[in-house]
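== Sequence, structure tokens ==
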Amino acid sequence: MQSSLKRDIVETVERVDNPGAERKGETESGGGWTHGSKGRESLQLHGDLPIIQQANRQKIGELEKELVASWRNLVGGYYRRFRPPHFSYSGKHQSSGDRSSQTTTTNPHGATIEELLEYSFLKADFDFVSAQAAKQDDDLVQAEKPLNESDILHNPSRSRHPVIGGPHRFKGGSTASIAMISTPSPTPFWHPSTPSSLVVSHVGDTRILLCSTSTGLAIPLTTDHHPSSPIEGNRLRRYAATFVTDSFGEERMSGLANTRSFGDMQSKRIGVSAEPELRRVEMGPAEYSFLALMTDGVSGAMSDQEVVDIVKEARTPDEGARDVVGFATEVGADGDNATCLVIRLGGWERRLEGGLGSMGTKEERLWRREEATDPRQRRR
């Protein structure tokens, strides 16, 4: 048995020393690699192989041109010069019936994930806005009510009305932050030895944070799409004459605090779009401890570092999310709704090792909690 084990070790070392050499005794079988050795049963490592998505580049370009032309014809204004940065077609915008312009072939195998995300955001927003534009607009009270007001809470899939939101036009909007994680191997992304790729797609002022395992610091992956943002200011200043500052010191454009969102159909013409901010992060094994997604009810009441420090002290991601929401509700002064989602990554077990652990904001959090619960502070 020792000689057999020694022979396997020598073979493994030879393969490592000669990465270009042929993998002896290995064959690709279905969803994994099969390693054959003399006198022993083969060992198969099961796992799903990557799925190659077939795509027609010309068809993709036609769909993208048709979507941009639909926005231009429906809304106009900002969308007359709108050019999504991740769309693959080249040339100026053509009408939906013109197929003469050529598409680029930067990715001959199909669309990139960034291209698909941008198209999905813009197409979903267009479908919603065009459907709302076809509804009546004679009930100003109903127009400001939430779309799910008629839902039965104990069974959200059932509704009192056949059309969710009623027959009248809904003029509100919503933000969105999406995190997509993929791995090059069958092992899950939260395994300490697994590298992974993270793609973030974001509109509005919800927030996504990464916690570094080595430093313990919070790494923001999104920016708030507010008029005060230099990027958003430059993008919209040619369409919006002025930005107004409200009584709380927050800049608004056409009465809105967010410059990118789904819906908000009355402000589409001046540039309030669902064009997503995209970011890709290549994560090494156990490089990050966890991922935190939250609404502005959390990020407006707490700093990024306070959020990750509270999660570090929790035993599970679920407990960490509950603790973050509880603290934000307790110390927040605005009374905004608070939602948090924590996703475990490869460095979860080492989340307290980097930097100051959770002690960097400990004293400040204790002081803020005491201030919020002190009845004498409420009388001021």
The first helix runs from residue 2 to 17. Residues 177-221+277-378 form a domain with the Phosphatase 2c; domain 1 fold (CATH 3.60.40.10). The mean pLDDT is 76.
